[in-house]
Design a protein that fits this description.
There is one protein chain. This protein is an alpha+beta fold. The protein has one domain. Helices cover 23% and strands 34% of the residues. The protein contains two helices and nine strands, in the order E-E-E-E-E-H-H-E-E-E-E. Strands 5-2-1-6-7 form a five-stranded antiparallel β-sheet. A four-stranded antiparallel β-sheet has the order 3-4-9-8. The longest helix is centred in the middle third of the chain and has 14 residues. It is globular. It starts with a strand and ends in a 7-residue tail after the last strand.
Length: 116
């Protein structure tokens, strides 16, 4: 089932959330951005900017900045019919323009209506 990721009433992308770890309450998969994603992309690039290229320690200041900015977005996971599902967090991994790696999404789903 395709899910929409919303910021306010604006869809920024979709995902089938192809993989599940029901024991951890995590669903994840490929993230497919829509045009409005460009407006919030800088928030998600903060996360990848905080990661060192070859191992090492992530930049904790940048990570804190990312989590605060992400939480301010008020991301919402919706079903195909527009029903919002309760989540603990929604995390989008964006490697930046020109990267060949697909974008990923990880969602902590706490809504009992989610189909595992």
């Amino acid at each position: 089932m395709p899910y929409r990721i919303m910021v306010g009433n604006q869809p920024i992308g979709t995902s089938a959330l192809e993989y599940h770890d029901s024991a951890q309450g995590i669903a994840f998969g490929t993230f497919h951005p829509l045009a409005p994603y460009q407006a919030v992309q800088p928030v998600f690039l903060l996360f990848t900017a905080a990661l060192p290229f070859s191992g090492g320690t992530p930049d904790e200041r940048k990570l804190a900045e990312y989590y605060a900015a992400r939480d301010r977005l008020g991301l919402v996971l919706e079903t195909e019919d527009g029903t919002p599902l309760t989540t603990g967090f929604i995390h989008i991994v964006d490697w930046g323009d020109g990267e060949e790696e697909p974008m990923e999404i990880e969602v902590q789903v706490v809504d009992p209506r989610f189909v595992w």
